Each structure stands twice: as C-alpha cells, then as structure tokens.
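Translate structure to sequence.
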C-alpha cells in the first residue's frame, strides 16, 4: 500500500505555481518538488496530483497493477471531481488525472484539511519560493 500526498502553491501576482509530492511506502518517504505550468491554484492542484501519480507509477513500475494507493489532497475540487469523474471547468484535467490513476489496482481518494497535509504543503511552498527566487 502506498500513501500519496500532493499540494500546490500559487503566487497570484506572478502567476507562478509549484507543487509538492510526498510518497510513503513501508515507512520510507519520497519527497518531490516541482515547478508547474499552471497559473491558478485549482489547475495547479490538478497538475501536481497527476504528476504525483505519474511519479508513483514510475517508482513502482509493473507493481502498479497490484498496488493500492491512498491519495490525500487538501483540494476540495480535486477530491470532489475524482469522486464524480466530472468538473465543469476542469474536465480535461480530471480526465488526465484519472488516466494517471488507471495503472493502479485501487485508488482511494481522501480529502484532508491543510494541517493534515503539511508534508506536501511544505514541499510546495519550498518549490514556489525557489521558482520566485529564480525568476
């Protein structure tokens, strides 16, 4: 079983976004940070979630077909959209995220408050500060 936490951070004035990915398996953590193409927080949340599943799939390889993933997000729109397989303004992003989840045997999505997503949140903010400094 794998636990996947993702979070995005966006600076509205600059339009910069970044994300954090935290993967936990057998008490081992993999921490990843990434600059994102998204310019709004909602699109950034979808982008980092998709990226998290892509990174996890690359990490586990062929074992994905037998893997259960507990996916944690503090984004209500990502959580709700996955449950419905629909989002009025973000359907393309929902479809991309569902496709990234497809290799796994089972994905259970859980919305969590930001305070329970601190690992991914911290990584996202670190990546955003790095992107701002590099600009």
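Result:
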């Amino acid at each position: 079983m794998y636990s996947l936490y993702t979070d995005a951070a966006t600076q509205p004035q600059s339009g910069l976004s970044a994300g954090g990915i935290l993967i936990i398996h057998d008490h081992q953590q993999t921490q990843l940070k990434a600059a994102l193409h998204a310019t709004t927080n909602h699109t950034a949340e979808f982008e980092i979630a998709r990226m998290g599943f892509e990174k996890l799939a690359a990490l586990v390889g062929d074992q994905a077909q037998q893997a259960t993933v507990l996916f944690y997000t503090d984004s209500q729109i990502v959580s709700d959209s996955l449950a419905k397989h629909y989002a009025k303004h973000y359907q393309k992003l929902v479809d991309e995220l569902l496709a990234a989840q497809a290799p796994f045997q089972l994905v259970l999505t859980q919305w969590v408050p930001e305070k329970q997503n601190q690992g991914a949140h911290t990584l996202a903010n670190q990546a955003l500060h790095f992107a701002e400094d590099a600009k």
